Automatic annotation (TrEMBL):
InterPro entries: Ribosomal_uS11 (IPR001971), Ribosomal_uS11_bac-type (IPR019981), Ribosomal_uS11_CS (IPR018102), Ribosomal_uS11_sf (IPR036967)
GO biological process, one term: translation
Gene3D superfamilies referenced in this protein's UniProt entry, alphabetically: Ribosomal protein S11 (3.30.420.80)
Keywords: Chloroplast, Plastid, Ribonucleoprotein, Ribosomal protein, RNA-binding, rRNA-binding
Similarity comment: Belongs to the universal ribosomal protein uS11 family.
Subunit and partners: Part of the 30S ribosomal subunit.
Subcellular location: Plastid, Chloroplast
HAMAP family for this protein: Ribosomal_uS11
Protein name: Small ribosomal subunit protein uS11c
Sample GO molecular function, one term: structural constituent of ribosome
Superkingdom of source: Eukaryota
Keyword match Oxidoreductase: no
Any Gene Ontology CC annotation: chloroplast
Length: 138
C-alpha cells in the first residue's frame, strides 16, 4: 500500500520559499509619493518590479494623521526594513508630490544606512495647463 503524501512539505511551497530567500537586490529605486492626505513609499529594483511598499495608512495612521511627517517617516522605515534584509546597499530616490512627508521620508531613508546615488524631484508641473473656468457672474 502506498504512503499518503504529506501536504505540509509540498514541492510548491518549498520552491516559493527558496525563490524568496535567494533574491538579492544590491541596487534599487525608492519612490516617495507625498500627497496632503497620505505618503506612499514604494521600493523597486532597477527593472521597475516592486520589492516592498508601505504607506502611512498601512502603518496604522487614520484620518488627517496620515499626512503628517511622522507618519511618512514610519512608512519609509517600514518599507526599507524588508529591503535591507535582502541586501540592498545603493538606491536612487524619486520624490513626487507637495505633501508634508517629503522631507521626513527622505530623512528616514538617509538614516537607514542605504547609500543614495541621487535624489530627484519628479513632481508633475503644468506648463500653463488647463484652461481656467469662466469668470463668475453674480
Amino acid at each position: 500500500m502506498a504512503k499518503p503524501i504529506p501536504r505540509i512539505d509540498s514541492r510548491r511551497n518549498e520552491r516559493i520559499d527558496l525563490r524568496k530567500n535567494a533574491r538579492r537586490i544590491p541596487k534599487g529605486v525608492i519612490h516617495v509619493q507625498a500627497s496632503f492626505n497620505n505618503t506612499i513609499v514604494t521600493i523597486t529594483d532597477v527593472r521597475g518590479q516592486v520589492v516592498s511598499w508601505s504607506s502611512a495608512g498601512t502603518c496604522g495612521f487614520k484620518g488627517p494623521k496620515r499626512g503628517t511627517p511622522f507618519a511618512a517617516q514610519t512608512a519609509a522605515g517600514n518599507a526599507i526594513c524588508t529591503v535591507v534584509d535582502q541586501g540592498m546597499q545603493r538606491a536612487e530616490v524619486m520624490i513626487k508630490g507637495p505633501g508634508l512627508g517629503r522631507d521626513a521620508a527622505l530623512r528616514a531613508i538617509r538614516r537607514s544606512g542605504i547609500l543614495l546615488n541621487f535624489v530627484r524631484d519628479i513632481t508633475p508641473m503644468p506648463h500653463n495647463g488647463c484652461r481656467p473656468p469662466k469668470k463668475r457672474r453674480v
